[in-house]
Design goal:
single chain; six-stranded mixed barrel; 2 helices
Length: about 150
């Protein structure tokens, strides 16, 4: 597992039901005030289990540091543009990846940004996010029924 940031973190778990993928659930933990989940991310290189922070202020799908994008050998997709909270405009490279989500492979766009991998609101769309907001609290992400 790849870990980012300055502190050592315990490994959250990914759980998928083999019998009923509609009940597949992603689980994680709260550590040092951050909700964290483990995702398997695949590019043209070897897949990696990556601990990601759930960031409800990030509107994209997934953001990864440049070092991890290189290691995964992700395919370049284009240039992205975002307006930050202070009104400034940020440009960044966008890549394609495959992640395991809801027990299945899912194609996602990856924004190259920051030192910490982030799961954003676009990835969480149509899902229920539950967080016990305390150190050691549990996190679950489950697809909403239609």
């Amino acid at each position: 597992m790849l870990k980012f940031g300055s502190s050592a973190l315990d490994r959250p778990t990914y759980i998928a039901s083999d019998s009923d993928l509609s009940n597949a659930m992603i689980r994680g933990d709260v550590k040092r005030g951050e909700a964290r989940v483990l995702l398997q991310i695949k590019g043209r290189g070897a897949p990696y289990d990556v601990e990601c922070v759930v960031d409800t202020g990030f509107t994209g799908e997934l953001a990864l540091p440049s070092m991890l994008i290189s290691r995964l050998r992700l395919s370049w997709n284009g240039i992205g543009r975002s307006v930050l909270a202070d009104g400034s405009v940020c440009r960044f490279d966008v890549f394609d990846a495959i992640i395991v989500w809801d027990g299945r492979n899912r194609a996602v766009t990856v924004d190259e940004a920051g030192p910490v991998p982030l799961v954003g609101m676009q990835l969480l769309n149509e899902h229920e996010l539950r967080v016990q907001v305390r150190d050691g609290g549990k996190i679950s992400i489950k697809r909403l029924r239609r």
